[in-house]
């Protein structure tokens, strides 16, 4: 029934379009023919008593005999329009061919009605686009979440709160870029297509390059191994913001393609990086959200306070009684079973430790830096000199989630080659998230890379602070083909 109603309404609009054409009116002109300087609707209020030209989408229509009112909306606001038959004797009847959703340009004097509402008393008007499909709210609405994502343009059009999320997200990334450039970092671009997917523990997407007749991987990090090659090449501070791709599951905090920032800082270690990251987060979050205080689920946190540092091993002992320096794989599996956490039978100690930590992490409010990671979960980080079983790494913990990862980069080519080899053995045994050997990167390290600290943060941080799933904060999230299973 809803579909039949839609088709009836759609056909009525098409009939109106044909009527406009019969009158010699082009319902899709390429530009506004009315003369004058076009102003945004938000500027109309400041033009009281003046003649103005503005344009937007018809948002409502109210007819009262020889007078019609419309609301006109653009991306800056909404304004009321007044059409009087006595002022538009030859064109007033054309208004009956207009519908909610049509785009219109109008000229007229800005007045204030008896009720005090700013209004444009229209003297000239021109249709710019005829809408032939009524908005969902006028027939059956956007029924479910997937439909909202599939017709995201309508979701954004009809819900200003949704649109506001993406305005904040734009400020989030713009301010991060602004902060890093101000600190002397150079923005770079590194390959999206790679012969070897590196820089993270993740399963990559595979594609085929026809011209070279080779299979390639979509990058799983924001150019980590490429940016470290730039450190070898003599660059001092670099960063990149872009899309990366991981062929893994979808949940509230994970997508297959998403935006990430990574920076690399020569002659700095993880402690230097932590200070910079805390300063950067406070700057970016204040710019994007206008506050540093948040309530996220059961967590109340203030990013403006001094961030504490917590130790990986000690935190696990405190919450589970498991000492990872002594525990066997079976010990960790028993604790995971007790907590009803999933893991693969083939998982080695590093993967099991990581699963146990993620279970504990949910109860940590933060903001906090997690340090003291075991080497088994950090194949690219430099070992702690006086305790080589652990590495110089940190993660940012906010509201039970990991929202940033950094470390002193491993620049010992012999150690790196050994860790790559261990990771490759894990891949051969079926661990698709284990890292691939990258002999060219090892060769680059053999030429020498200075002490370097790197850090990465994804749009997960924005989603968590916005109180949304990460899918909700992507403009056009990937969906199955319409009608697909």
From TrEMBL:
It comes from the Bacteria. Binds 3 Mg(2+) ions per subunit. The keyword Aminoacyl-tRNA synthetase applies. Mg(2+) 1 binds at residue 402. Residues 174-481 form the Aminoacyl-transfer RNA synthetases class-II family profile domain. It is found in: Cytoplasm. Signal peptide: none annotated. It is an enzyme of class 6 (ligase). It catalyses: tRNA(Lys) + L-lysine + ATP = L-lysyl-tRNA(Lys) + AMP + diphosphate. PROSITE patterns: AA_TRNA_LIGASE_II (PS50862). One of its GO terms (molecular function) is magnesium ion binding. The keyword Magnesium applies. Its cofactor is Mg(2+). Keywords: Aminoacyl-tRNA synthetase, ATP-binding, Cytoplasm, Ligase, Magnesium, Metal-binding, Nucleotide-binding, Protein biosynthesis. GO terms for cellular component: cytosol. Its EC number is 6.1.1.6. InterPro entries: Aa-tRNA-synt_II, aa-tRNA-synth_II, aa-tRNA-synth_II/BPL/LPL, Lys-tRNA-ligase_II, Lys-tRNA-ligase_II_N, Lys-tRNA-synth_II_C, NA-bd_OB-fold, NA-bd_OB_tRNA. Mg(2+) 2 binds at residue 402. Gene3D superfamilies: Bira Bifunctional Protein, Domain 2, Nucleic acid-binding proteins. HAMAP family: Lys_tRNA_synth_class2. This is Lysine--tRNA ligase. It comes from Candidatus Woesebacteria bacterium GW2011_GWB1_40_12.
């Amino acid at each position: 029934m809803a579909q039949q109603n839609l088709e009836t309404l759609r056909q009525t609009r098409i009939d109106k379009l044909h009527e406009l054409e019969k009158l010699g009116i082009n319902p899709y002109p390429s530009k506004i023919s009315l003369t004058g300087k076009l102003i945004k609707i938000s500027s109309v209020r400041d033009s009281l008593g003046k003649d103005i030209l503005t344009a937007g989408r018809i948002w409502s229509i109210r007819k009262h005999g020889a007078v019609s009112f419309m609301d006109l909306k653009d991306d800056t606001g909404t304004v009321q329009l007044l059409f009087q038959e006595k002022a538009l004797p030859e064109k007033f009847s054309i208004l009956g061919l207009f519908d909610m959703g049509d785009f219109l340009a109008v000229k007229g004097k800005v007045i204030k009605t008896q009720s005090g509402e700013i209004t444009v008393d229209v003297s000239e008007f021109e249709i710019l686009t005829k809408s032939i499909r009524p908005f969902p709210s006028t027939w059956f609405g956007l029924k479910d979440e997937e439909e909202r994502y599939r017709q995201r343009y309508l979701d954004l059009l009809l819900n200003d709160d949704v649109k506001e999320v993406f305005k904040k997200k734009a400020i989030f990334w713009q301010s991060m870029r602004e902060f890093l450039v101000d600190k002397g970092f150079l923005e770079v671009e590194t390959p999206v297509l790679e012969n070897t997917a590196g820089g993270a523990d993740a399963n990559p997407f595979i594609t085929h390059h026809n011209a070279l007749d080779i299979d390639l991987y979509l990058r799983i990090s924001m150019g980590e191994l490429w940016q470290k090659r730039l450190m070898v090449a003599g660059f001092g501070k670099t960063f990149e913001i872009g899309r990366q791709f991981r062929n893994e599951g979808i949940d509230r905090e994970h997508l297959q393609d998403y935006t990430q920032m990574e920076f690399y800082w020569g002659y700095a270690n993880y402690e230097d990086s932590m200070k910079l990251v805390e300063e950067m987060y406070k700057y970016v979050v204040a710019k994007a959200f206008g506050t540093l205080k948040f309530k996220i689920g059961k967590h109340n946190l203030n990013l403006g306070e001094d961030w504490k540092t917590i130790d990986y091993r000690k935190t696990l002992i405190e919450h589970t009684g498991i000492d990872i320096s002594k525990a066997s794989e079976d010990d960790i599996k028993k604790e995971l079973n007790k907590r009803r956490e999933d893991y693969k039978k083939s998982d080695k100690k590093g993967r099991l430790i990581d699963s146990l930590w993620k279970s504990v992490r949910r109860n940590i409010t933060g903001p906090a830096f997690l340090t003291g990671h075991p080497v088994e979960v950090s194949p690219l980080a430099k070992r702690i000199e006086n305790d080589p079983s652990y590495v110089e790494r940190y993660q940012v913990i906010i509201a039970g989630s990991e929202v940033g990862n950094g470390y002193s980069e491993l620049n010992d080519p012999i150690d790196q080659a050994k860790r790559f080899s261990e990771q490759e053995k894990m891949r051969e045994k079926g661990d698709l998230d284990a890292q691939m050997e990258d002999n060219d990167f090892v060769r680059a390290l053999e030429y020498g890379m200075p002490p370097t600290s790197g850090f990465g943060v994804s749009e997960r941080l924005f989603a968590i602070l916005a109180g949304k799933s990460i899918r909700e904060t992507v403009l056009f999230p990937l969906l199955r083909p319409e009608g697909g299973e």
